[in-house]
Specification:
four-stranded antiparallel β-sheet, single chain, 1 helix, mainly beta
């Protein structure tokens, strides 16, 4: 008996689709009888009944029979979503296959070519009696609740969703040419500072001394050493960096007012001396944030007779 009933329901669904002149693989438009220029669509997101353009997939639907029942699901061509009222309003969205809210009965109106669309879950009908498409109770004669399910003749793609071109692999850009000249391999730059003078006292510092290496305006490296607590930085402290950049100058600076006397400063590229400023026990430079450190026995032995917080030395 169950198999006979199931077969009768399948036959009823096939008969219904034949009455609409569509099959389950066809795409259809759902046109209102009362306002014949209005079709159910989701062009702007929500379900509406409005004027449409010929190529809109948003207004094209598949009517899919549910095996063993008299009900159908109504699937949108554009989004692949289904009409339902799971949230107590007419929507188009993803569904679970067991939802009665996404199952509809199409009731033939006296062989007129129009159908009432009745929800299985709530027994409500789709209509636009109040101006917008919605679900609710209806009166038997309302044309606003009658719909023609018409086979779509459009074979074009939707005008609002043009096909995207296949992604292409971007052409790799050539490596940018360096804006500054480079050595063919890394070069070792060393800055050596002589901070001892045989005729001057207290020439070391407890402050941090920093040497910055530049290629033009670009800072390439920054190296520092901290003076010891006993006020001794060390004899000939060395600051080293390895780079392919062609260093143009170095800047030596301090972070405090405990003056350092620079008797000599030498710069080496690998083992080649490329700069030698000052001479042993000669005049030198006072490195301090306190200009008054130029006084005392240092007076007359420092450049400009003034202390500075930094000095620049250009490489020849």
């Amino acid at each position: 008996m169950k198999r006979i009933i199931s077969q009768l329901l399948i036959t009823a669904c096939i008969t219904l689709l034949m009455a609409m002149n569509v099959n389950a693989n066809d795409f259809t438009r759902i046109q209102n009888r009362w306002k014949a220029n209005q079709y159910i669509n989701i062009e702007k997101g929500p379900v509406v009944a409005s004027n449409i353009e010929q190529g809109w997939w948003s207004a094209q639907w598949q009517v899919l029979p549910i095996q063993g029942t008299k009900y159908v699901r109504i699937k949108n061509r554009w989004k692949g979503t289904y009409l339902h009222n799971q949230n107590r309003r007419l929507e188009s969205g993803s569904i679970q296959m067991g939802w009665w809210s996404a199952q509809w009965e199409l009731i033939n109106i006296s062989n007129s070519g129009y159908f009432q669309i009745k929800n299985r879950w709530t027994g409500e009908y789709i209509h636009n009696q109040n101006g917008k498409v919605q679900l609710g109770a209806i009166k038997p004669g309302w044309w606003s609740a009658q719909w023609r399910v018409k086979k779509s003749q459009s074979t074009t793609k939707p005008v609002t969703m043009p096909a995207k071109p296949a992604p292409t692999r971007p052409t790799p850009k050539p490596a940018p040419k360096p804006s500054r000249p480079l050595w063919s391999s890394a070069v070792k730059y060393s800055v050596n500072i002589d901070c001892v003078h045989a005729h001057l006292s207290d020439t070391h510092t407890a402050n941090r001394i920093t040497v910055k290496f530049y290629a033009g305006s670009a800072l390439i490296a920054s190296k520092y050493k901290n003076g010891a607590a006993n006020d001794v930085l060390g004899y000939w402290p060395t600051f080293v960096t390895n780079t392919r950049e062609k260093i143009t100058h170095v800047v030596v600076s301090t972070n405090g007012g405990d003056a350092l006397f620079i008797d000599q400063l030498q710069v080496f590229k690998n083992n080649e001396r490329i700069l030698w400023e000052g001479r042993d026990n000669g005049g030198g430079w006072c490195l301090s944030t306190d200009a008054r450190d130029a006084n005392g026995d240092w007076s007359g032995n420092i450049a400009g007779n003034v202390c500075r917080s930094s000095y620049r030395f250009n490489l020849r």
